[in-house]
Specification:
The protein is an all-alpha fold and 266 residues long. The protein has one domain. The longest helix is centred in the N-terminal third of the chain and has 34 residues. The chain is globular.
Length: 266
C-alpha cells in the first residue's frame, strides 16, 4: 500500500515537472514570436503558406532548403499538428511531389505520427483548460461526442473521415484514460490508408486548388466507402445482439408466425 502511494506521488511529481517544462517552452515560443522579428516573420510566412491552399507554394518552400528539405518537411508537419486545424494534406501532397510518392508517404506518415504524439503528450500534461485555449472549446466538444459514442474506436474512425481534424482528436485522446501506446497504434493504422492515397495522388499533381480538390474527393470517396461498410457491420452486429434467448433455450417466435406462447397458470 505504501509502495503504491509512493509510486502515485512520484508520477504526480513527474507530471508536474513536465507541465512546467511544456509551459516554459510555450511561453518562450510566444515571447520569441512577439520579440524576435526573424521568428515572427517565419511563423507568419508559414501561416500564409497554408492559407494560400496551393501545393506549389509549399513545394517551393520545402525545396528551397536543399539537403535539409526532409527535416524541414518533418518539422512543418509537426507545426501543423500543434496549430490545429491547418490542412495537413497540403504537406502530404507536397512531400509526394518533392520526394516521390512512396518516400513522401513514409515522411508524411512518420511526421504526422510524431505530431499526433506531441499533441497527445501536451494534452496529457497540461489538461483540458490549456487544450481548450489551443484548439477552441467548441472544436474539442465536437470531438468529445465521437469519444462518447465510439470509445477507443474513435481514433480509427475519425482518421478515416477527411472532414474531422485529427489534431483535435489527438488532443482529445490525451484527455481520456486511454494509454499512449494504444493511441499510437490506432493512429498509425488509422492514418496509413489516407496517407498512401494522398501521397499517390499527390505525386501526380502539378499544382493548383483544382487538383487539390480532385484529390480530396478521391480520398473522401474511399473513406466514405470504408465508413459505410463499418456502419453496416455494426448495425448487423447490434441486431444479432438484440435477439432475446428465453430460459428454455429457444429464441422468441417472430410475430405473425401463427404460434401462441403457452399461457402461464394463475
Amino acid at each position: 500500500m505504501e509502495k503504491s502511494a509512493a509510486v502515485q506521488a512520484e508520477n504526480k511529481q513527474a507530471r508536474r515537472r513536465w507541465r512546467w517544462i511544456v509551459l516554459a517552452v510555450l511561453v518562450l515560443g510566444v515571447a520569441a514570436y512577439l520579440l524576435v522579428p526573424a521568428f515572427n516573420s517565419l511563423i507568419n510566412r508559414l501561416l500564409i503558406l497554408f492559407s494560400a491552399m496551393n501545393v506549389d507554394t509549399i513545394v517551393g518552400f520545402i525545396r528551397s532548403f536543399g539537403m535539409w528539405a526532409m527535416v524541414v518537411s518533418f518539422l512543418l508537419m509537426m507545426f501543423q499538428s500543434l496549430i490545429a486545424p491547418l490542412p495537413a494534406f497540403l504537406i502530404t501532397f507536397a512531400n509526394a511531389a518533392v520526394f516521390g510518392w512512396w518516400q513522401g508517404a513514409i515522411l508524411s506518415w512518420s511526421s504526422a505520427m510524431a505530431g499526433a504524439a506531441l499533441c497527445f503528450f501536451i494534452a496529457r500534461v497540461l489538461g483540458r483548460d490549456a487544450v481548450e485555449r489551443l484548439t477552441g472549446r467548441g472544436a474539442l466538444r465536437s470531438v468529445d461526442q465521437f469519444f462518447l459514442r465510439y470509445g477507443k474506436n474513435t481514433i480509427l474512425i475519425c482518421r478515416l473521415l477527411p472532414f474531422v481534424s485529427f489534431d483535435y482528436v489527438s488532443y482529445a485522446a490525451g484527455l481520456t484514460p486511454m494509454g499512449f501506446w494504444g493511441f499510437f497504434l490506432a493512429t498509425g493504422l488509422g492514418q496509413l490508408p489516407a496517407t498512401i492515397v494522398y501521397s499517390y495522388v499527390g505525386g501526380m499533381l502539378t499544382g493548383g486548388v483544382r487538383y487539390v480538390m480532385l484529390a480530396i474527393l478521391i480520398a473522401s470517396a474511399l473513406a466514405a466507402l470504408v465508413w459505410m461498410l463499418k456502419k453496416i457491420y455494426n448495425e448487423r452486429h447490434r441486431r444479432d445482439a438484440a435477439v432475446v434467448i428465453p430460459p428454455g433455450g429457444a429464441a422468441d417466435a417472430p410475430c405473425g408466425s401463427g404460434e401462441r406462447a403457452p399461457e402461464q397458470a394463475p
